[in-house]
Write a structure and sequence with these properties.
Belongs to the UPF0149 family. The protein is 61% helix and 0% strand. By secondary structure, the protein is mostly helical. The longest helix is centred in the last third of the chain and has 25 residues. The C terminus is likely disordered.
């Protein structure tokens, strides 16, 4: 399985978007990607079409760009399905201001929730109470204040919100794909 280190980072995808003339946030599309992989098993072709539509282009400008976009999907799926539970949302990193990172988290959340809302009520019927609560929390997060001052308290709060978002994404994926990832071996624990 691919690790999160193999996955393109936020800046790489943002630069790729800019090279296609788009200011679209990678965070928003990554939120959509995560929810679509969980709910619909999004194909590579459908993902490429969605990204191109989001960028306002017909196709990637070159083979390398297309491969990067497809690798983003594949590596996200690998991380969601990995027993290590190491999926990380594609968000601005520590090189960005706290406000930019908060906006990135909000954009990711809005993309994620957009797909969930488009799916309707049918998938929700089988969700656990924990997943329903996590999604409700994300709905509140979509309206959060993002103009944060740099402070240790705000940094810690943003970290906690990001972790909550990550766990909600993993919970959605695992509930929609029973047995994937296999986090329980079925073997008794030796003490």
């Amino acid at each position: 399985m691919s690790t999160t280190e193999d996955r393109p980072d936020f800046s790489t995808i943002a630069d790729l978007f800019l090279s296609h003339g788009s200011m679209q946030s990678p965070a928003f599309l990554d939120g959509r990607l995560c929810a679509e992989l969980a709910l619909h098993d999004l194909t590579a072709e459908a993902w490429l079409e969605e990204v191109c539509h989001g960028l306002g282009i017909e196709q990637p400008r070159d083979r390398e760009s297309g491969e990067t976009l497809l690798a983003w999907r594949r590596q996200t799926l690998d991380a969601l399905a990995d027993a290590a539970l190491n999926y990380e949302p594609l968000l601005p990193d520590d090189l960005f201001s706290l406000a930019e990172r908060a906006r990135g988290l909000q954009e990711w959340t809005l993309g994620f929730l957009e797909v969930i809302e488009d799916a309707g009520d049918k998938p929700r019927q089988s969700w656990s109470p924990a997943l329903r609560e996590a999604i409700e929390d994300l709905e509140a997060l979509g309206g959060m204040e993002t103009d944060l001052e740099d402070s240790t308290e705000n940094e810690n709060d943003l970290f906690a919100l990001t972790e909550h978002t990550r766990m909600a994404a993993m919970l959605l994926y695992t509930e929609q794909h029973p047995g994937q990832p296999q986090v329980e071996s079925g073997e008794p624990i030796q003490h």
